[in-house]
Amino acid sequence: MKKNPLHLNLLAIAALALTATQVIAQPSPLQVIAQQPPGSGSDSMTRAWAECTSRQTGLASVVMNRPGANGILAINYLKGQPADGANVMSIGMSQMTITPFVHRQMPYDPLKDFDGIAVIGTSPLVLTVPAGMGIQKLADLSKLAQSQNGGLNFGSPGKGSPAHLLTTALAEAMKWPATHVPFVGEAAGLNALMGHHIQAMTLVIGTAATQVQAGKLVPLAVFSSERSALMPDVPTIAEAGGPSVLARPAWIAIVAKKGTPPDVVARLNEATNKCRNDSTYANRMGAMNVTLVSSKPGDVAAYAERDIAVWKPLIDKLGLATE
């Protein structure tokens, strides 16, 4: 029997429509932008969050590293994407409260360019020196800085990072002659520190703990108002003889481009808060000494405003802003 051409055309149209519906019903993976290199503490936290939210939402995720310029390259990439919820970014206290203000022409506005999704957690920072230098406390480092030609060479994961600002402010308060040596990410600076190419570096405590336990680093002070359970014998910055204003723990958050649909933001915020009860995620973050927090989307801006009020005057006082 001869088939009706019209019938064949209708079948073809129906098949195409079904295929299109199937394509639309399969959402693209969520692209999570990490602003530090693979292997860094920030990268590890980002991947833990991406994997947990995938479990909570059923939406696949892909982590893409865009390191450089202490987060500015990653931020520029995010700003260049559509505000459709397909791209989000992990961002730290550094990028939200310090980095834009160490440039005379702000490369971005942390309070206007992003929609906050959630604050993931907080983690203290610790000042460290290489083992084998004979330095056991902050006063010993002060003597070294005062005695050697050129003063102290200290590293950081990049200009405008919390490590940079905290150590610079400490050197200023302690009247140390000091030179800042920026690296692209914490891992590169850590290698230089353990190789004795620099004399000191402020690290995320989870990064420092492994090398302290291995006998390769000596911790001198925790930049917090309380001692860390991970290093209970290490004094706070105030106990060590430094200024208490520098007791500022680092924090990490997830943001999207400004204008992202509110339902996407709400869904990812809900998933983040549920992750606090996910044992795999909680154990993984706990191993990095991250204290998980419950948060609303608006808390990202609130955290930023709180710390900008501390860091911005300090940046201006120390004259850290450059072209």
Protein model, in words:
The chain is an alpha/beta fold. The protein has 2 domains: 24-121 and 250-318, Bordetella uptake gene, domain 1 (D-Maltodextrin-Binding Protein, domain 2, 3-Layer(aba) Sandwich); 125-246, D-Maltodextrin-Binding Protein, domain 2, CATH 3.40.190.10. The protein is built from 11 helices and 11 strands. It has helices spanning 5-25, 41-57, 72-79, 93-97, 138-147, 162-174, 186-194, 205-213, 262-275, 279-287, 299-318; strands at residues 30-34, 61-65, 87-92, 114-123, 125-130, 152-156, 178-182, 200-204, 217-222, 250-257, 291-292. It has a 6-stranded mixed β-sheet, with helices on both faces. β6, α6 (162-174) and β7 form a beta-alpha-beta unit. The chain starts with a helix and ends in a 5-residue tail after the last helix. Pfam families: TctC. Keywords: Receptor, Signal. Residues 1-25 form the signal peptide.
Which key phrases capture this entry?
single chain; D-Maltodextrin-Binding Protein, domain 2; alpha/beta; signal; globular; 42% helix; 6-stranded mixed beta sheet; 323 residues; 2 domains
Structural topology:
Layout: H1 5-25, E1 30-34, H2 41-57, E2 61-65, H3 72-79, E3 87-92, H4 93-97, E4 114-123, E5 125-130, H5 138-147, E6 152-156, H6 162-174, E7 178-182, H7 186-194, E8 200-204, H8 205-213, E9 217-222, E10 250-257, H9 262-275, H10 279-287, E11 291-292, H11 299-318
Parallel strand pairs: 1-2, 1-3, 6-7, 6-8
Antiparallel strand pairs: 3-10, 4-10, 4-11, 5-8, 5-9
Helix pairs in contact: 2-9, 2-10, 6-11
